[in-house]
Design brief:
mainly alpha
């Protein structure tokens, strides 16, 4: 199918399932739910009529937004008509060569739907498709060869970065239960930047981005909720790598145990800094930060589960410290540079 026919197919299906009068409710439903914990779509840019005409997969994205927010009724998740439609349209757009921001975001939302409803291995395969497109677009590394026109505005570049990080997060989460499978997304580059503060981005305020790699986690760093989730997913990936190396026996046991101890300390420090940022101790918790905390807890459970047998056999590795861990004490001993 040609690109123009693929675009017309998406537009025709969108007209049937998302009318003009439905868009306001769709935007509200999506941005008050999914967007709260995975803010990758700029609402301001999404509502821009001119920009919507420039991306052939804009209508496909609207359909995927609806898919993630509707009630399924009596349909099994894997057999819902809208799911089947969006899967088909995404393949059509991809086969037509319509590589774009909206197509990649559509695949991200499809993988969220599949992961949420335990549609496997579809979730693993879909996030892999999104990852390949992001790598093709060069968003995973600022020094990578750029085959497409670079972003001409700060807002667009930030949205691309957030889309890349969304894929990275989902890739790590999906691989939590699939031991030994390679990640679809590579490790972040040494100069990788985190998403800016979510509120500033939503208002279109251009501010500097913070680096991912840091000597310590701090609750005083000007990071938004999504950036904290990115940090947590990065640590989860390190735990998964440690688990898989342990099972392959490709490294000396002592080295893996030492790495596990460092991961334990780093995760504890990150979780503490997130809780302090959210006002967890005072009870003024911030809802979007629970995604970051949940990923931290998942990483800790995965790490401790792998070494529980060793602990029971004689305490070869003391992962559970008896002394409380503080961010300041760890900043001198834990380097998180890669």
């Amino acid at each position: 199918m040609t690109p123009s026919k693929a675009r017309h197919a998406c537009e025709a299906c969108r007209s049937e399932h998302v009318t003009i009068s439905d868009r306001s409710a769709l935007h509200h439903g999506y941005f008050s739910t999914i967007h709260q914990w995975l803010p990758m779509i700029s609402e301001k840019r999404l509502r821009d009529i001119q920009l919507s005409l420039e991306d052939a997969s804009h209508d496909l994205l609207l359909l995927c937004m609806k898919l993630c927010t509707i009630s399924l009724g009596n349909y099994p998740p894997s057999q819902h008509p809208l799911y089947s439609l969006t899967k088909s349209l995404s393949s059509t757009a991809e086969n037509a060569g319509l590589a774009s921001l909206r197509l990649i975001q559509s695949l991200v939302l499809l993988s969220i739907y599949e992961l949420s409803h335990a549609i496997h291995p579809a979730a693993y395969l879909t996030i892999g498709r999104a990852a390949r497109l992001v790598i093709l677009m060069g968003w995973h590394d600022r020094d990578a060869q750029q085959l497409f026109k670079p972003a001409d505005t700060w807002s667009l570049r930030e949205e691309q970065r957030r889309t890349w990080w969304s894929i990275f997060i989902l890739d790590r989460v999906i691989n939590t239960e699939t031991s030994g499978f390679p990640f679809a997304t590579p490790e972040p580059s040494p100069d990788e930047l985190l998403p800016v503060n979510d509120d500033d981005w939503g208002r279109g305020k251009s501010i500097p981005s913070q680096s991912l790699y840091t000597a310590s986690f701090s609750s005083y760093a000007p990071l938004g909720c999504f950036a904290r989730t990115c940090q947590a997913a990065h640590m989860l990936g390190k735990v998964i790598n440690n688990r898989d190396c342990k099972k392959k026996s490709s490294q000396e046991a002592a080295d893996l145990l030492t790495e596990a101890q460092s991961l334990h300390q780093a995760l504890a420090a990150l979780k503490l800094s997130i809780e302090q940022t959210a006002g967890y101790e005072s009870g003024n918790d911030e809802y979007p930060l629970w995604s970051a905390i949940s990923i931290c807890v998942s990483a800790q459970a995965l790490l401790y589960g792998e070494y529980l047998a060793l602990l029971e056999q004689g305490g070869i590795l003391n992962l559970i410290d008896t002394e409380p861990i503080t961010v300041d004490s760890l900043s001198q001993s834990v380097w998180l540079g890669g």
